[in-house]
Write a structure and sequence with these properties.
Length: 301
Amino acid sequence: MINRIEDLVTAAKLKHNMPCVAAAAANDSNVIESINLAKEAGIIAGAWLIGPETDIRKIAADDGVGLGPFEVINEPDPLAAIEKSIKLLVDKKCDILMKGKVTTGDLMKKVLDKQYGFRTERAMSHIGVFTSPGENRIMLLTDAGINIAPGLSRKRDIILNAVDVAQCLGIERPKVAVLSFIETNDSTAQSVVDAIMLVNMNQNGEIPGCVVEGPYALDNAISPESARIKKLKGEVAGRADILVAHDINVGNALYKALGIWSKAVLAAVVAGSKIPIVVPSRADSKETKLHSIALASLLVK
């Protein structure tokens, strides 16, 4: 079982078949450096850097990164760079798609195009992984980057995607907390209504492989002391493995607060697709991008 985010790289090194990364619009310093770090760490076999070749080579030279182990495809147009990156995965030349200097929306629009065959029966969702501050265990947060205002069926998919990732990391039966602003069931707020329904779906076997509880305010989900004070007796109370945000406003704010205020080292991936997708924020550190590549590597089938 992986207990700390830094263990992702160690675990990825143990894979027998190292994956290859296709980076769309790779003219970004942190993207190039993180891919180089991943190669040096022995967690990827190589990478294709698609974007304006002159810019890519200048950035690499300025950062002291040798491009010998990588393929560079010249494509100045960002949307065309996305298409060429996706084609590499369709042709089985690469295993992981990584976002460079393009928007998440533009990248996901192409990924969702049915002609490429990446879609599954589930909706895709963003999953952040981090070391719980002050603890020797990892936690997951979803959805911080893809689904804006998910309804009930979409939230079911979001939980199932996160459970798959958690189990890949060694958490056999993840404890899932559905977040709201309160922990009681007597509100008509949509976050409360959805939480109650998701708990019922879990109990009915529609969300297997985990235990789902909620609604939980954030403190009750992650702090045993807060759960004790409020006399919450659930299995998830104070010990959640997965935090499910009501919408992207909550999820994105929590994710960024972890990185900025808590200085947490993060990793993130888009799941629910036939391929793992790394969609880092351009402000993410090269370490976060490296750990995201390692996480995606573990998810390659």
